[in-house]
Amino acid sequence: MKLYEKLKNDEIYFIAEMSANHAGKIENALEIVKKAKEAGADCLKVQTYTADTLTLDCDNEYFQINTGLWKGHKRYDLYKEAYTPWEWQPIIKEQCEKVGLDFLSSPFDKTAVDFLEKIGIEFYKIASFELVDIPLLTYVASKGKPIILSCGLASVEEIEEAVAAIESQKNYNIVLLKCCSVYPTDEKDMNLQTIIDMKQRFGYPVGLSEHSIGSLADITGIVLGAQIIEKHFCLSRSIPNPDSVFSMEPEEYKEMVESVKRAKKICGKVTYQRTEKEENSAISRRSIFAREDIQVGEIFTQENCCIVRPSYGLKPKYYEQLLGKKAVRFIKRGEPLYESDLHGNN
């Protein structure tokens, strides 16, 4: 599993979320694995549920979706269309192993956890909507494996409760994800500065799971300290499915990975030391030079010495101390003054 290796080395861990983008065809699912690897992902993620484990097949108003991207759908029908058949998942996992991707899933009930344990999953993702399902969190945590906890919709108190539930099982392998659970997400609703607070408040690594269009949010998240980027991944948005509208195509994902890595490199580390290349630029600082020939015994004045570029001479901060002192050597116009000139004659 690359996750903790990446976090330990302060590298970015990229998750490609398949979700419903297989559009009901296992051929698409296996092609997504291949394309996600080529695009730079570290991990391919699926979701382990059925419509029956997620909701009730009920037609009353409580089970209708009335807002957002899926407005007009009955929940049961949407989840039935979007789910990834469980019999595919060992095949997808095997394909991930062949190409060198980690395999990750979000379980939505205990039967999903038991199934994922049987196929040898190494770590878990908890979806934002399930963060408040404390019995599920406790059961997942009891397996002793790392947990990535998505925090969309969650208050501070709810995150604290979820973390406490995981920790109650002596499981401290937690990564939190900043998330806004709107599909797709408007930039004004993202509030990514929360990443900084989450790291300080909860003391665990923090990443970003996001559903906006483009990669600007991902770059911003890395600048603010995110260590994981999770983004929905599709072969093409022209293949209709419940998630295609806010998913990245392979070339877009590849560009996102490259841009995020560049942003990470640009952020660098906290340092006030010059870089190796800056050393060459430092010569263009100012220093004290002779404006005209200065004879031995002559007084240093504003007329015969000045502060100019380059920086071969005495630092400008000594200029006032130098004025009024006598030269102990002949200094030709255009030559730098040195510390010995400052202290040579008091």
Derived structural class: alpha/beta
Using DSSP, what is the number of strands?
A: 10
State the distance separating the first and last CA atoms. Answer: 69 Å
Biggest beta sheet attributes? 8 strands, parallel
Neighbour order of strands in the largest sheet? 3-2-1-8-7-6-5-4
How many alpha or pi helices? 14
Unreliable residue stretches: none
* Molecular shape: elongated
* Average pLDDT: 95
Strand percent estimate:
5-15%
Q: Percent range for helical residues?
A: 25-40%
As a whole number of angstroms, the C-alpha radius of gyration is 30 Å
SSE ordering: HEHEHHHEHEHEHEHEHEHHEEHH
Give the arrangement of secondary structure elements.
Blueprint: H1 3-8, E1 13-17, H2 26-38, E2 43-48, H3 51-54, H4 75-82, H5 89-99, E3 102-107, H6 110-118, E4 124-126, H7 134-141, E5 147-150, H8 156-167, E6 174-179, H9 194-202, E7 206-209, H10 216-223, E8 228-232, H11 250-267, H12 276-281, E9 287-290, E10 305-308, H13 319-322, H14 339-343
Helix pairs in contact: 2-5, 7-8, 10-11
